[in-house]
Design goal:
This protein is α+β, with helices and mostly antiparallel strands and 438 residues long. The protein has a domain at 287-417: 3-Layer(aba) Sandwich (UbiD C-terminal domain-like), CATH 3.40.1670.10. The chain is built from twelve helices and 23 strands.
Length: 438
């Protein structure tokens, strides 16, 4: 379903919060959205932006992704892994809702772009799905935070050695770009997955749910036909200061010299809905972490019988994971630990548990560690490994990959042990209606 169809469905299920009171894009809207994290919020009255609405928090809970792609929450990881393994080329259409209105006189100040925090460098777009083409590998979609500089320019945080940066190195001049705001949750998931460079993320999105595309008006790029807003432009050879900005760890990222994007054309739907994604919030965390779960799941399945994998919010939805295995031998958990680190190379700590432990319940994971883990036998420590630049406790040298120590915790029942010693006692079910006036 499209972004606005999802909003309609969230309204029908009672999940959507609607706010008609006028709100300001400077701090106020972000503060209200943060106070309501976990529920989609539609702001219908934006001060200074007649005709625009803003939606926050659509990606703030796994159940919304489940609702959008039509599978149960427990099936999401396997559904993502299947789409990653078998992408489907999306169809092209001649006309599309995202081009109902064409704005040639570009003024980025006319978009309700938020100022989130007093520490921020300025008004940022954090929800934009960026589409480029690599002359060797083809289409690539990903995220880059965008700092509004003036009427036609952004500064973009573009990480070195990744897809967009690599495509830029192959061009002598500007690199065409399309920035899509208000896309389906399936497109968001695909954009966050980071598959090998030859894999088209929009084909992954189409494997998750139908995602027709339309050609841009100023370049040879294709964009989701039902996007709310598309900004067509170019990544130039100019650079400027970008940052500070709150990152995934809820700490402020540093100031860097980054590329400047020039916007040539804006297209959007009638009565457009701007997606405002809060930096460091639940949407940011889920969109960063959840798409790494299928890669962990796939790697662990090469060495053990993996039945689930989850990136945990307590680990900033990036640095910690819990892996569930159906243990078949004494070394399965240790192999699973090593494979998990291959499946997500920024991972810092991983817990491996048995199938009787709910990996979505941190209390159950802690219980498994308390009752099944012995540090002198079940702890795996890896020193001085490549780590995440987001970890403030890591070793960070400019121009070099960040380094960190990593640890894995085997919280499974010891192989060959009497399982009854480690299993929870189970009370029977009752119908409380037989005992209480309810």
């Amino acid at each position: 379903m499209s972004f606005r169809q999802f909003i309609q469905q969230a309204s029908e299920t009672g999940d959507l919060v609607t706010i008609d009171k006028p709100v300001d894009t400077i701090f106020e809207l972000a503060n209200v959205a943060h106070a309501l994290e976990g529920r989609p919020v539609l702001f219908n009255n934006i001060k200074g932006y007649d005709g625009w609405r803003v939606c926050a928090n659509p990606c703030s809970d796994r159940k919304y992704f489940s609702m959008d792609v039509g599978v149960g929450v427990a099936e999401l990881t396997r559904h993502l892994a299947k789409a990653l393994d078998a992408p489907l080329p999306p169809p092209m259409v001649e006309t599309a809702p995202c081009q109902e209105v064409i704005v040639e006189d570009v003024d980025l100040n006319a978009l309700p772009i938020l100022l989130h925090l007093p520490q921020d460098a300025g008004h940022y777009i954090a929800s934009g799905v960026v589409i480029t083409k690599d002359r060797e590998y083809g289409r690539n979609i990903c995220y880059h935070r965008l700092l509004r500089l003036d009427k036609t320019h952004f500064a973009a945080r573009i990480i070195e050695q990744r897809g967009t940066w690599n495509a830029m190195q192959k061009e002598d001049g500007d690199l065409p770009i399309a920035i899509c705001i208000g896309v389906s949750l399936a497109v968001h998931l695909a954009a966050a997955m980071s598959p090998p460079p030859e894999v088209d993320e929009l084909a992954v999105a189409h494997a998750l749910k139908p995602t027709p595309l339309v050609k841009c008006l100023t370049s040879d790029l294709e964009v989701p036909a039902d996007a709310e807003i598309v900004l067509e432009g170019r990544i130039t050879r100019r650079t400027t200061s970008e940052g500070p900005f709150m990152d995934l760890t809820e700490t402020m990222d540093i100031i860097r010299d980054q590329p400047v994007i020039e916007i040539d054309l804006i297209t959007h739907r009638r009565n457009p809905i701007f997606h405002a994604l809060l930096p460091g919030g639940l949407e940011h965390k889920l969109l960063m972490g959840m798409p790494r779960e299928p890669t962990i799941y796939a790697e662990v399945n090469k060495v053990a019988r993996c039945t689930g994998a989850v990136i945990t919010p307590g680990g900033a939805s990036w640095l910690h994971a819990v892996v569930q295995i159906d243990k078949q031998g004494p070394d399965d958990a240790r192999r699973a630990i090593e494979a998990a680190f291959k499946g997500h190379r920024s991972l810092k700590h991983v817990w491996v548990v048995d199938t009787d432990v709910d990996i979505y319940d941190p209390n159950q994971v802690e219980w498994a560690m308390a009752t099944r883990f012995q540090a002198d036998k079940d702890l795996v420590i890896m020193e001085n490994r490549p780590g995440s630049s987001l970890d403030p406790s890591g070793i960070h040298v400019p121009g070099q990959k960040s380094r960190t120590a990593k640890a894995g915790f085997d919280c499974t029942i010891p192989w060959g042990a009497d399982r009854s010693k480690f299993e929870k006692g189970r009370y029977g079910d009752v119908d409380l209606g037989d005992y209480l006036d309810v």
